[in-house]
Write a structure and sequence with these properties.
Layout (H helix, E strand, L loop, with lengths): L1 E7 L5 E6 L2 H9 L5 H4 L5 E8 L2 H12 L3 H11 L5
Antiparallel strand pairs: 1-2, 1-3
């Protein structure tokens, strides 16, 4: 199983990535070892994720989400988590 996720950083910015373990990836992000972007914006929290069967599917979806602007990402997040923003 692979996951595409969106993090909310401490400065309220959003970060999108993919992984095969959400729990481990979140630990890495919050320890400052997963991403140069999130390292200076700790702590981070997973606020959205999708599951995929293959790495290829997850990576494709990650690219799609990264191409969205902030309002579009918030709409995506809110589509599954009403009232989260």
């Amino acid at each position: 199983m692979f996951f595409v996720y969106i993090l909310e950083c401490s400065d309220k910015s959003l970060y999108t990535g993919y992984t095969n373990s959400l729990e481990e990836r979140l630990k890495l992000h919050n320890s400052g070892k997963a991403s140069k972007y999130t390292r200076s914006r700790l702590p981070v929290e997973i606020i959205y994720f999708e599951e995929y069967d293959t790495k290829s599917e997850a990576m494709s979806r990650e690219c799609e989400i990264k191409a969205l602007n902030r309002p579009e990402k918030i709409n995506l997040i809110n589509s599954l988590k009403p009232g989260s923003f």
